[in-house]
């Protein structure tokens, strides 16, 4: 007959094994949840990667007046656009090209029009021409650089006199 001490040791061992199994089941459930979550993220990112957007920035007016250098603006965009958190590393995801006075940004990944407008304004500020030009959306996927409309001083003066 086995002694009492041996029975308690085997009972302890089986209890510990049962605890491990329960712990493993909890870990297995957690792992299954993580795997399911990861699979869901992958399907979302795969569908996002298939999107292709093409934005245009029309710089015709300022380029004809030689206020804006379109080539410098194109280089600025290529250097500053961030892809996966790194600036200047466009790879195959984003392509910036120039056709006369238009700049075309072709993105094969999620890309924000608002981000492009931000970079355009930043370039205008850096070039010290932000005071004369503004960025206006002319279509769903395009911008135009236009001059601010400045009213004549004579009209303002006559209005001021009429009020007094």
Could you explain the architecture of this structure?
The chain has about 160 residues and is of the alpha+beta class. About 55% of the residues lie in helices and about 20% in strands. The chain has five helices and seven strands. The chain has helices at about 5-50, 60-65, 70-80, 115-125, 155-164, and strands at about 55-60, 80-85, 85, 95-100, 100-105, 135-140, 140-145. Strand 2 (about 80-85) and strand 3 (about 85) form a beta hairpin. It is rod-shaped.
Short description:
The protein has helices at residues 4-49, 60-64, 70-80, 113-126, 153-163; strands at 53-58, 82-83, 86-87, 94-99, 102-107, 133-139, 142-147. It has 164 residues and is α+β, with helices and mostly antiparallel strands.
Describe the structure using short key phrases:
alpha+beta, two-stranded antiparallel sheet, 5 helices, disordered C terminus
Total strands: 7
Radius of gyration based on Cα positions: 32 Å
Uncertain regions spanning at least 5 consecutive residues: 156-164
The percentage of residues in β strands lies in 15-25%
Oligomer: single chain
Number of helices: 5
Roughly what is the average pLDDT, rounded to an integer?
A: 79
